[in-house]
Request: fold
Amino acid sequence: MKVIEVQGVNYGNKGAQLMLEACRQHFDGRAKLVLPFRIGSFERRRTAGLGHLIRVQRERFPGMNALLAAGVALAPRRVLSAGDVWRESALDALVDASGFLYSDHWGIDAIERMAKRAKSLKRSRRKVVLLPQAFGPFDGPASKRAMREIILHCDLVFARDKVSLEHLLDALGGERPAHIRQAPDFTNLLNPRAVAAGTAGSTLILVPNARMLDKTSASDAAEYPALLARVARRGQELGFRPVLMVHDQTGDNRLADVIETKLSFRLERITLTDPLALKAELASAAIVVGSRFHALVGALSSGTPTIAVGWSHKYEELMRDYGLDNASVRVADFERVAALLDQWADATRRGALRAELQARASQQKALTHAMWRQVDAVLTA
Reply:
């Protein structure tokens, strides 16, 4: 059985956790998935059936990792096997599920680290696959050069949308190798857990994102909490029950506190730890208005009418995939949000839209199944 490291996932961000779960479900029985020791706890990895990878990262902890590598080299394989512990030399492939990392938005360090890793893996004849994710922009020559190195040392690279694909091709100077392809976000195949009681029918779920405070203009960052508060008030006036969903604990709880200070009523807050339970809530909602990308995917792939308030091209492209171009809005677009809420307050219209979204979701899921077939073909070649 192939041994595959899943990179770019973690247990702190619900989107990253969903991507890990999607990989785990797909590769179950097909390959042994492993994660570095720093990702989650030993027990959490063990419970999920994931192996424990000892991988040296010299650029971060040179002394500690050199000592660790020497110790692992002396450990008998039977000892490591008993604990489901793996050396990096045992890897057959790396599957990268970073979501949105390789971009000037986040700086060049991650791009350069991955370029070195991809080159090293290819020298030792391991497979490298970048699962569907957002890329770019790459405006500086250094980031373009590093991204080009990544692309040229991968066996498959999937852009999640048209704009990301264009950024990749720009980094290559316009050429398009056959191994660069496009496929949607692959968490759309995940089925939610049972829906919690009391959430179905009339719920308007608001999903804030702290990145809207540091990745947008100063004016948008200042107005963003007020926008979501206005949406909550409008939803309540229309007969919906507005609630806040904390889809990522990092900063989003504090942002939810700020939103509540702008309201004269309290909002229920959904803070479930299981991302599939969160998807179940999104699937059962009447409407979702949010800024967390994978919460939007969870809602749209379940057929829930959705409005996106985003800060990068990935939001607009996602909404376009589901035929909701007009529901990708800016912070200053409250009037458009209000108009959509007014339309969708009609149960008949909302039901018709849900049917349209479910049809679109079926098309997106078919593309994801096709993506996995391509990945399997490369990893087993």
